[in-house]
Fold ATP-grasp domain-containing protein.
Amino acid sequence: MKTIVFIGCYKFGTSKEALTTAKEMGYHVVLFTDIPKYMTSNVEFPDVDQFIFVKNMLDEQQMLDGIIKLKENGKQICACVSMIDPYVSFAAQLCKHLELAEISVDSLRIMENKIKVREKLNNLPMTPYYSIFHPSDSYKELEEEFQSLFPIIIKPPISNGSKDVLFVETTKKLANALNFVQKNHPDSQLLIEEFLRGQQYLIETLVYNNEIRYLGVVEQEVIYNGRFVVNGYKFPAILGQKESDSLYSTIVNIVETLGLSNGSCHFEMKLVQGEWKLIEINPRMSGGVMNRIIEEGTGINLIKEILKLYLREEPAFVETKKQHVYAKYLTVRSRGKLLKVTGEELAIKHKGVKYVHVKALEGKILTNPYSMGDRYACVIAVSESAEQAEAIALGASREIKFYLEPL
């Protein structure tokens, strides 16, 4: 039985969609998980044929033992895939060990560490000014180094999302910010970099046999509430020819320098005074509703093409439609216990709305947006113009209301 092994999964978003896509492609779906309650989650994971619990999913021998048992039970392992941190390069390593697809393991491993990325791209023009802060370093020396560059950004080398990224406006706040991050990441080096002002974009990329086969550019709308949280996505991003050409050249430069010959990743870039600057790279497709955004705009199922890459098949990117897409994420303004949510049925009835999802569950505690996890609903709309798609999504999102009991 042809089988795809997945390592880790969330209850929502890209990693879960990958399970569904694999099932639709006709594969037996096996999910390795370190979350015991997933083992009985047939309702939440209807596309999983078999769950395998592994306490430490980065233990290569444990994982290989599980895969060997699958083989002994008649499963033909066709691919090992992970769409979540920190298992992406590990899954690629298992592919190599099992003589499956040749995914660029070393390149993906570098991408999993923000400091290693900066060091590898150190001399390239898209790299902002940065410094590495060691646990034994002096606050004063760091303060002097960045004196003229405030505000700055502090982030640990291994993290995802925005919850660990601190924006430090003045020298007076530096010591407290460093202490805060170090509490969550003791004994870890920290990445300190200049804060870049400019429009932010997300770029989905797939590389096959040293050639960029897909490059999708999404404009991001970012809010700041003590943390940076993306609450809006416009696809495709509208760029001038000059900006588009220079972006492509920048991505090619990064991909070649990192040695990515086969694999997928996404970049976060800012256009700063006409020059592209790299915010960060992640060695996987972006989470949330990104696949839906791209599919609504182009007809391309990017997850499916990524799986084909891991199955040693050539990805194919044929646009079957061309529409503007706007995805609006909803947040709340105060902390409270969720009593009920209304308006989901009204939102989906708006002309042009293709998708409405409410993640928040009654009885859960909702809070102001301090991380990407604090986005509680999403509305996706399409139209022939970017402005109209945005207007439709915003209008539909106003139908959705969260009723909270203050805490």
